[in-house]
């Protein structure tokens, strides 16, 4: 649910933003969510957490298939400001292939060392032969807690590492190993959104602060790549009927059978193509946005 209208809704990313993203592999977009939106989505996560076994135990929750397990998060799928960065990068033939919301309370005891640095995409990073490997997908992180200081479970990244296929690390993840020299612990405020390339090497820092880390991650890719999220039964869910056509597309719905196909052969029956066309946002200069 979006509570306020925004002047830059549906505006494509600027050339300066694109240049920065291509250079660094990520882009921090401040103040995307209004305070009312932060309260709404944080409240939804709090209720989902409280009703979970992890919430009862007061431990961290990493909940896959975010909207399936917390339908109130559906408004983030195509948030009119944040989602503009996705179709600007990937075009209209996209869906959400992977999502999760995380709640990380303060760690009361020191956690044993574990090497957590990784690129998103799983086996893509071993089975695609090119160097660098292709982008394939991009992720939005919607921050709902105050991570404006280090040590609060911040996302830690290596700027520019999205063009590097391999990162030196220990033989085993449990073996102590130095932090990468160029690592940056990102500091963000509630309502900020982080856009990042799936190839960006990143890890989560441990949270020993009094702040509980709360964030929603939504990963987008082309519809010819299989969805990881649990979405097969969604059309039978009552709340699914209230979603917009674009939101249904993003959750894997292939349309009404009138011609839409996940390979994009019938753009005129693909909801996001229609939404961009109506707004004059298709762009012949970019292959993935050609009218």
Automatic annotation (TrEMBL):
Taxonomic superkingdom: Bacteria
Signal peptide: none
Molecular function as annotated in GO: 2-oxoglutarate-dependent dioxygenase activity; iron ion binding
Pfam families hit by this protein: PhyH
PANTHER family: PHYTANOYL-COA DIOXYGENASE DOMAIN CONTAINING 1, PHYTANOYL-COA HYDROXYLASE
Protein name: Phytanoyl-CoA dioxygenase
């Amino acid at each position: 649910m979006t509570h306020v209208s925004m002047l830059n809704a549906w505006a494509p990313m600027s050339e300066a933003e694109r240049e920065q993203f291509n250079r660094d592999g990520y882009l921090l977009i401040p103040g995307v969510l209004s305070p009312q939106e932060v309260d709404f989505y944080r409240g939804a996560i709090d209720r989902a957490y409280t009703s979970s076994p992890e919430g009862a135990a007061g431990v961290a929750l990493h909940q896959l298939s975010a909207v399936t397990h917390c339908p109130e998060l559906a408004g983030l799928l195509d948030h009119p400001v944040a989602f503009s960065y996705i179709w600007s990068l990937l075009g209209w033939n996209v869906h959400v292939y992977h999502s999760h919301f995380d709640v990380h309370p303060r760690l009361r005891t020191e956690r044993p060392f574990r090497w957590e640095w990784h690129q998103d995409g799983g086996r893509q990073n071993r089975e695609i032969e090119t160097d660098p490997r292709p982008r394939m997908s991009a992720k939005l992180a919607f921050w709902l807690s105050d991570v404006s200081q280090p040590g609060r479970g911040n996302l830690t990244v290596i700027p520019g590492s999205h063009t590097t296929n391999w990162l030196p690390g220990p033989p085993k993840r449990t073996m102590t190993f130095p932090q990468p020299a160029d690592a940056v612990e990102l500091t963000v405020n509630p309502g900020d959104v982080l856009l990042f390339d799936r190839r960006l090497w990143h890890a989560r820092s441990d949270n020993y602060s009094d702040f509980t880390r709360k964030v929603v991650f939504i990963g987008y890719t082309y519809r010819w790549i299989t969805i990881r999220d649990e979405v097969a039964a969604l059309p039978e869910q009552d709340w699914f009927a209230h979603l917009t056509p674009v939101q249904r597309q993003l959750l894997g719905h292939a349309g009404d059978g009138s011609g839409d196909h996940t390979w994009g052969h019938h753009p005129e029956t693909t909801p996001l193509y229609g939404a961009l066309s109506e707004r004059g946002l298709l762009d012949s200069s970019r292959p993935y946005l050609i009218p």
